[in-house]
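Phosphatase PAP2 family protein
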Amino acid sequence: MWEQVKQWDRELFVFLNNLGIEKYDAFWIYVTNPRHWIPLYFFFFLLFFLAFHWRKALFSLLFLLATVFSVWGFTNIVKGFFIRLRPNNTPDLVDLIRVLQEPTGYSFFSGHSSTSFAATTFVVLVLREKSKWIYLAYIWPIIFIMSRIYVGVHYPSDVIVGMLVGIIFAFIFFWLYNKAGRRIY
């Protein structure tokens, strides 16, 4: 059964990856680079300072950073445990897929997915009472994880599991944030 699931994952990856259109390659390569999202990170920080007084904003920011760095560390531990080759490094797939990037690390699960969903979910949980529009922030991690399949470096299961792990970490850290925040505020 596990082999069948892995086969479906590979087939879905090949299908989604091959939907790519060459004239959009530059867009997806740009989107998949975390450095290009730095203005969005600063926007998230700014939202905290617009929504709360400086102490609570700083407190929120510190918990956001703790969430992201914790999920990032956990992701790297799991990658070292599962040691799953990325699609772009899998000899059976090289002739079947479009490869726009060639990282050499392991695939399971996606760090882009886990960290972006952890950050976004934490920001949404903290700010959802301040703005109903904050849910639009989920556009970022969705585009971000789609780019990982498009550029040929993650299977769909990598990004889905990463998304779920990121959301779980965000809820855990939001719970801790509320618990710690009661003592401070």
